[in-house]
What does this fold into?
Amino acid sequence: MNQPIDKERLDEALELIWVLDEEGHREHDRFIRSSDDPDNTLLLKTLIDDGFILVENGTVRLTPKGQVRAKGLIRRQRLAERLFTDVFEMPVNAVLDDACKMEHILSEELTESVCTFLGHPPTCPHGKPVPRGECCKKFRVDVAPVVTRLSEFEVGATGKITFIVSSDPSRINRLNSLGIAAGSTIKYLQKTPSCILQIDETTVALDPEIAKEIFLKKI
Ligand SMILES: [Zn+2]
Ligand SMILES: [Zn+2]
It folds into this structure.
């Protein structure tokens, strides 16, 4: 009769338990009470049978295996939120659904790349902690995130443009016509009052707003 529970629902339940723990809810009342629903009973049973949770005195707890799984899911979700809001500049409220899907898609290696690329952010756009990964431990010895915005780049340094994000495609075309494109090497000469950079033998002044849309890697 009962359909097996799909993986996404199991993952969502693990995330919910993680968030309740994080918020300091000791008793997972709400979760248990909703288990009157036969579908939720099956969900809980599946999580117990798979070794992700255990129920003690009416309280749901993550097993060590459940913690590893939930931590990974939460980490991917919050990094995806950062990616959408910081890089693609989407409003925070618009990103949650996509971020929820992303966490099921991002592989472990991709997650590390995204985390490194974003500079190992400590929190998501909602201010919730991003669980740390292996890359974040290594990061302590590294100096800086791999990619930064031109507006935050070090004056006098040389960098290679990794990409340009703009809501206005004609702006990207104009930048490209100046030689400012993914793959170009530039030297950052001045930050204020206007942002000045050098490409080959040419110096170009940019509006500081545009400098925020250019991402580059120090070389
Ligand atoms: Zn968030
Ligand atoms: Zn990291």
Q: What stands out?
A: Residues 67-139 form a domain with the Diphtheria Toxin Repressor; domain 2 fold (CATH 1.10.60.10).
